Amino acid sequence: MATGVDAALAKAGRVCDLGTDPSQFLDRFEEWYEEHKLLADSISGITEDQKLNLLLLWGGREFRKRARVEVNGAHSSERVFRAGLPQGSVLAPTIYTLWAADLIETLRNASDRTDVLMYADDTATLSAGATVELAVARAQKSADALARWARHWKMSIAGQKTQALLLTQRSRDERGVQLLVNGTQVTGGTSLHLLGVTFDRLLHFKDHCDSLRRKVRPRTAQLRRMTGRTWGLREAQLRTVANGYVRGALEYAAGAWLPAASPSHVQLVERELLAAARVVTGCPRSTPRDPLLAEAGIPSAWSTRKTLAARTLCRALALPEDDPLRRVAEADPPTRLRSTTGWRHLGRSALIEAGAEGVTVEPRLEVPLLPWTTCRPIAFNLDVGPGGRRASSNETRREAARQHLAALPAQATWIWSDGSADAGVRRGGGGAVIFTASGETLEVEVAAGGLCSSTRAELFALRAALERVRDEPSPAPLVACSDSRAALSLLSAGAAAQTTTIGAAIWRTLLDIAERRQVTLQWVPAHCGLAENERADALAKQAATLPQGAVPSDARSLTRAVHRTATRQWRENWPDSFFKTIFGSTLPLPIPGEDREAAISVHQLRAGHWGRSLQYLHRIGRHPSVACLQCPDKRCPAALCAVCREEADVPEHVLLRCPALAGARLRLTGSIYVDPSRLRDADLVAALEAGYLRHREPLGYGPPCEYEVEDVA
Questions:
Q1: Ranges for the RNase H type-1 domain (predicted)?
Q2: pTM above 0.90, yes or no
């Protein structure tokens, strides 16, 4: 929808969006079917044999409205289902595609400059015009064509669910927009809700952000019920729930709308992320944004915005050249909404920042291998026995590999392949050494792309080696050895499970080779002294220096590069604080253990807002004195450290400078002057806090719980 809006805005300054919904299509299908409309000659593009096959497909079990479930080969008993088509059935989208085949052409021919967008049983049209009147007139023609089509096929349009929205920069233009849809008067509104996203007139997505906040707050409340000050889930579990249950709802379809949202509305999304982060960490509301999100393991909405924009752009560029979405991605129209950039503009900027300017995107796998493709004699061995574990010594791993390889055919063509990538992300190269059954030795080097993962480089090396021996006439077995368990695991999922172009290409080559010889893909431990593997590794490193410009990068590698760059920029731009003194530009790890109270204190101390600090409590009015009820002055007597009275008991003082803890720091770290980076150790911070509270309690401040400050959402 958002991409269609971009294309429409490139054509004209006014766009009228009309969203319709065929009433209960899936539930009414059986009635529609019984009226024999499926076999009507007006269905274009379907032969008589296809019509007959479709009838046979609908017959039998589906016609009796009964179904059963299959799990790992076991079948349940048959159950009657009420709907015309069961949810999740493969038949449902097939029938709908055939049913709606002529609707797209009908709407396209209804009026000029009208784009049609269809999603399941939701249909939207975008009618553009130089004036409001022209755009509305074209939208009315689309509505009339839709109504005629529905009457022809004995369907009803849900007029009460139809919405209209005028996209314009002038608020006065949207007044008085009226459309007649199947006899129902539809008045243009200030927003349009389609597929879970709310569009507004300026595409700022304020209404959508407000809707998200209402949706997410109950989820945050549920997350809050999973933990407290002294009890609750472990932090790793809280992070998982926060990122999946809360953040997942916020980022629904965010690739389309978040890059286009105005900064003030992105800030609304970030507020909900901060609320979830406070639950995970137990930090108070006054905690600064960046330390809070970092301690909770939740990325900033601003860095996520760049990543999602780049992912949407790369996926669009990976589509076929004639795909409408790709044409939108490649277009460069003038900007009509100055405050709105969109995923195309933001994605390009993010790719440039990641060093991917001008990089070609690898085409998406359009025709996967069929599910019933036979594997023939292809075997995958992902282990060499207990001795091959990473914890074993190099000698043990090498000996285990040699013993395992000795059981494989000696009279065979052996491939040893390896991949290399700078820091595992850049300048990929693949190398392989091939020992043929005839005694010949071959070497292969191939560039894998300027932005490339280590696993992708391994796949490039294996593909190049297999293509080198594909036409070898020898019927001797083929053994391919690789030290990448990730690459072999991806391939071992099967031919039909491949979702990448290179994975499918490797499987096609394997199937060709397996027509005349047995094929075995064997994992071997890396860097343990296997001469053949070390030789392949050297070739891979040499291949990484080859020119990379002509090698395309896949959308996943490009997206990950943007994510790394955006996250690094976020970390490097953290304002100076005690938290940045500790972590620099690194992210904290989840705090292990089950002591929830200690974990919360560690987060608060490192983030710089400790809820048990007298200075903090005095600043918020929870620790008044006779002379001063409340003030932010750290030199106020009520804010001084209760133990040493030298300065305010801010986290820096408690953990690094308080004389009362000099002995504890010496015992725990070997020095009374602790390097702030040592405070990344959560156990050290917890021990220092516990020691400080033990010193303070005899001075009349009571047990720690009396100075606890809970966050009130």
A1: 409-545
A2: no
